[in-house]
Amino acid sequence: MNPPRVAFFTDSFHEVNGVALTSREFARFARDRGYPFLSVHAGPETRAWSDGAFETFELKNSRAVLQLDTNLAFDVLFPRHFGRLRRALRRFRPDVIHVTGPGHCGILGAALAFQLGVPFAASWHTNLHEFAARRLAHLLRFLPLGMRRAACGFAEERCLDLTVQFYRLARVLFAPNPELVDMLAARTRRPTHLMLRGIDTNLFSPEHRDRSDNAFVVGYVGRLSPEKNVRMLLEVQRGLAEAGMEDCRFLVVGEGSERERLQTNLRNCKLTGVLRGKELARAYAGMDAFAFPSETDTFGNVILEAMASGVPPIVAAGGGPKYIIQPGVNGFQTANPQEFVAAILGLQRDAELRRQLGVNARAAVSSFSWASVFEGVYAQLSDAVETNSMTRAARDSRIRTPALRPATKYPAPRG
Length: 415
Known about the structure:
Elements: E1 6-9, H1 18-33, E2 37-43, E3 47-51, E4 54-60, E5 65-69, E6 72-75, H2 82-92, E7 96-99, H3 104-116, E8 120-123, H4 128-139, H5 145-167, E9 172-175, H6 178-188, E10 192-194, E11 216-221, H7 232-242, E12 248-253, H8 259-265, E13 269-273, H9 277-285, E14 289-292, H10 301-308, E15 313-316, E16 332-334, H11 337-349, H12 351-365, H13 370-400
Parallel strand pairs: 1-2, 1-7, 2-4, 7-8, 8-9, 9-10, 11-12, 11-14, 12-13, 14-15, 15-16
Antiparallel strand pairs: 3-4, 5-6
Helix pairs in contact: 4-5, 7-11, 10-12
């Protein structure tokens, strides 16, 4: 069976985040395999081009963009591209339209799928409900704790309900961890499949370590924003100082609204901004421990990057990253800042433990390949297309076949 013709609508492609990385790797996989693929995403200008069976449609955002954070935006006027994309899709003739979520591009992709009668698939990448609750908590920090918790709890539930309503429209769903697979399957009643992530173990490797000092470096890579819980690093530093750990440095890679607070209050800290490629690989390899306090991440590509670099990760016990970690074998799961501090102290005081966890971490991610991830995705998309074709054929058959009328009974002839 030929691979399905996929039109892929993503709200992040050129940015520096997990959705964009996964989107670029999905596109790269299709291009390398020569599969018919139309990639639709925002770009610096509106333009289209093709490379064999691989086509790209970049759309420029308007000035009416809601800037949620660094590399996170929502263009309220994005529907103006509807007619242009409808013509492009009719030329491309997709078998399935795949979107990465209810952002401006994903919503447009879903609307086009329904108008053109094309099967619609969706992958879950971001816990938008938790994102919204933490942003609201930050805005309402002047309120008493009880009122703040009630408001944020209500907002989180309503946001989750609305997000699930969007995913319920799809024929097939993908999610990055078992908890989300179970939640989506139960709440949408749609087939939901696990979609992991891959890692380039050649780029991210302990071989890039070029440090020669004796300091202990705790690293973080990611967006510097409230939902990433990066303020916990301040509590961790205080705990380490109280425990008498003097030679600890922090290396923070990324940008976001919390940068100024970290720069002002996190001592012995180097903030590099966004790094890419070999510079990022060297930054990881120079760490002795990787601290990731986020409880809202659905997977955590940065965890794989740290592990491939031979750096033991310390992650929050909530969220998706916990599914990657075997506690005490290739990293640690922690429930609070005190446990973060204890894990870092343990690694600092026991060099052999740190070395062994780093070796185990790299070994654990050696089988995570982007190719295997997207081979699985294509298999499920093919099944969805085939099921849609069979359903349509059965429906058309019912429409075209006239109903049989009961035989007319004539009276028996006389005589």
